[in-house]
Design brief:
Layout: H1 2-45, H2 47-75, E1 76-81, E2 85-91, H3 105-114, E3 119-121, E4 127-129, E5 132-137, E6 143-148, H4 162-173, E7 189-194, E8 197-201, H5 220-223, E9 247-255, E10 263-270, E11 283-289, H6 292-300, E12 306-308, E13 323-325, E14 331-337, H7 347-356, H8 359-364, H9 395-404, E15 408-409, E16 415-417, E17 420-421, E18 423-429, H10 432-446, E19 451-457, H11 459-467, E20 473-479, H12 487-490, H13 511-521, H14 526-543, E21 546-550, E22 556-558, E23 586-591
Helix pairs in contact: 7-9, 13-14
Length: about 600
């Protein structure tokens, strides 16, 4: 009975819950019909209103994002930042990094990056301390005392001391070392009273002496034990050079079997203890190309950031037009008349040649803007005086002067005297620039009846002709530098075959000029020096041993901007690296302060 009663109660309960569930479902259906399906048509009616609000919200969010973006650009701009690998291509081959022997473009480039001198040049081409803090000269003008900066280090971490400086210059003076710098250091004693001080004693006053202190210093602790005769071939020069410059030697890689197509890569990394501040570039790689076409192709294809060693801008660049840097050199391009070679022994002929030439027209044919050179000194150089400029262009006056000197015009329009034609040969290097210059000079001189034959020589043949003075006239650029001491180019002693360099290319001899040159270089007071040089300038103007043309330039190309690279006037092509520790090639957005 109890089980039957429980069973009946369970069935009644189940039926009751079933009826409740059905009632709830019916109620849900009624609610869904009433609250959703009947109102759905009304929701569709306001869909445009809802969509409009959604679009407005999207626009507001987008506007805020754009505003933030533009405000970010307003408060930020692109600025150079450290980093990046700089690849520079130079024409030539690498043979030594040692500053005591570096002479080629490639060697000078590597040496300048690895080694520092006592002094260097700033962005205004003024002498400034590098390893040296300062210098003093005594009252007699023959003793210079140089003080080193504190805490200087070699790349291997050893301290730089005055002993390194003494070793460097005594090695240069040693004939067994065979340094090309030796001729400038004869008769000078170098000593070190303490680790931070160097004393230079000169045999006589030399006002330009501080400008001789820019060559690289080498480490005594690594080289002093080597015999001087072994220094030129030491492993130090090409395997593991240690200097104090802005970059540290890492490796050299060579590719190409043939010498004519060889390529070398000299990889350098920043020197963190460089006295001028750690370089901003991550690496500096010098690419030396023996073949010019390969060098130009590498630059045009974007493999190189910079290019040095070509005389003109490549015709094509597969990426974009390169940025052309044309810093002028403190140098002068002249035609040197060999005053011992007829008919140039006649001062009237030389004066007429100067008057017949038109440097302005020649400059207009060059591929770059430059300044005219009108005397043995440059404009803005100490002692330059416009009163002593060479004669200006005047073809009629030139013709009249030749006529008065007995040079008569023949049937062919050329001049003769005593049955001999007025003709001479002129030598120059075979470059596009010098081909243009010599052709224009030939044309200008022919107009007054002078026949000039031109010999365009390869670099090596030209150096031989220059060394032996194998020419009647030579077109050549000479380095003048900042100081006005031009003794080596115009003093009679420098025309002697026994002189160290025989750089008096005109073989010019004038006793008044000699005395003036000697007096000018042995006076320290700038005003007095300017006065002492006047007789030389006057003699040069009257004797016309050369024709001044223009200041040459350094052609340096870059693929893109290089922050810190200056186009200021340079003394040598390698001086482009004076500020290399501040070069930057990367850019990033930086918030304005």
């Amino acid at each position: 009975m109890r089980f039957r009663s429980f069973k009946l109660r369970f069935r009644r309960g189940y039926r009751q819950r079933q009826k409740q569930a059905q009632a709830i479902g019916q109620h849900a259906e009624v609610g869904l019909e009433k609250l959703f399906f009947k109102r759905f048509s009304r929701l569709m009616a306001v869909r445009r209103f809802v969509i409009s609000w959604l679009l407005l919200v999207v626009l507001l969010i987008g506007g805020v994002l754009l505003q933030n973006l533009h405000l970010g650009n307003y408060y930020q701009n692109l600025q150079p930042v450290p980093g990046g690998i700089y690849n520079e291509g130079v024409l030539g081959t690498f043979s030594t990094a040692n500053p005591l022997y570096a002479t080629s473009d490639v060697d000078n480039t590597v040496s300048r990056l690895l080694f520092s001198g006592l002094f260097s040049y700033d962005q205004h081409n003024q002498l400034t301390g590098s390893l040296a803090k300062n210098y003093q000269v005594d009252d007699k003008g023959t003793t210079y005392t140089v003080h080193l900066k504190p805490h200087l280090k070699w790349h291997d971490g050893r301290p730089v001391t005055s002993a390194d400086v003494v070793f460097t210059y005594q090695t240069i003076q040693n004939p067994d070392a065979q340094s090309p710098l030796m001729s400038s250091w004869q008769g000078i004693t170098v000593s070190a009273p303490d680790p931070q001080t160097i004393i230079f004693k000169l045999p006589s006053v030399l006002a330009s002496f501080p400008y001789n202190l820019v060559n690289g210093i080498v480490p005594a602790h690594l080289l002093a034990k080597l015999p001087p005769t072994d220094l030129r071939s030491a492993d130090f020069n090409t395997v593991h050079p240690i200097g104090t410059g802005p970059f540290v030697w890492q490796a050299v890689q060579v590719s190409g079997v043939e010498h004519s197509t060889a390529q070398q890569q000299i990889v350098l990394r920043p020197f963190v203890d460089y006295q001028g501040g750690k370089p901003k570039l991550q690496e500096f790689i010098v690419h030396a190309y023996a073949d010019k076409a390969q060098l130009v192709d590498a630059f045009s294809s974007g493999q190189l950031n910079g290019l040095e060693g070509v005389s003109s801008v490549p015709a094509t660049n597969r990426l974009s037009s390169p940025i052309v840097h044309n810093p002028l050199l403190t140098a002068g391009t002249y035609v040197f008349f060999k005053t011992t070679s007829p008919p140039l022994t006649d001062v009237a002929v030389r004066q007429a040649l100067v008057k017949a030439a038109d440097p302005a027209v020649i400059i207009s044919h060059l591929s770059y803007p430059t300044r005219a050179v009108r005397e043995p000194l440059l404009r803005r150089q100490l002692a330059y005086d416009p009163a002593y400029e060479q004669a200006g262009h005047d073809s009629q006056a030139a013709a009249a002067q030749l006529e008065a000197a007995g040079w008569k015009v023949g049937k062919n329009g050329m001049r003769f005297k005593d049955g001999k034609p007025l003709t001479f040969s002129m030598v120059a290097t075979d470059t596009p620039e010098y081909r243009t210059v010599t052709a224009e000079l030939q044309k200008q001189w022919r107009q007054v009846g002078v026949a000039v034959s031109v010999r365009l020589l390869t670099g090596q043949d030209f150096q031989i002709a220059l060394t032996y003075h194998d020419y009647d006239a030579v077109l050549y650029g000479i380095s003048l530098g900042v100081d006005p001491d031009v003794f080596v180019y115009w003093d009679s002693s420098q025309a002697d075959i026994r002189s160290a360099n025989r750089l008096n290319l005109s073989e010019y001899k004038n006793a008044t000029a000699d005395a003036s040159l000697e007096a000018g270089r042995t006076r320290l007071d700038p005003n007095l020096r300017a006065i002492k040089y006047k007789p030389f300038l006057q003699a040069w103007q009257q004797d016309a041993p050369a024709l001044g043309l223009y200041q040459p330039r350094v052609l340096y190309l870059t693929n893109g901007e290089v922050a810190g690279l200056s186009d200021a006037t340079l003394n040598t092509a390698t001086d482009r690296l004076n500020n290399v520790q501040n070069w930057q090639i990367r850019e990033a957005r930086v918030t304005n302060n």
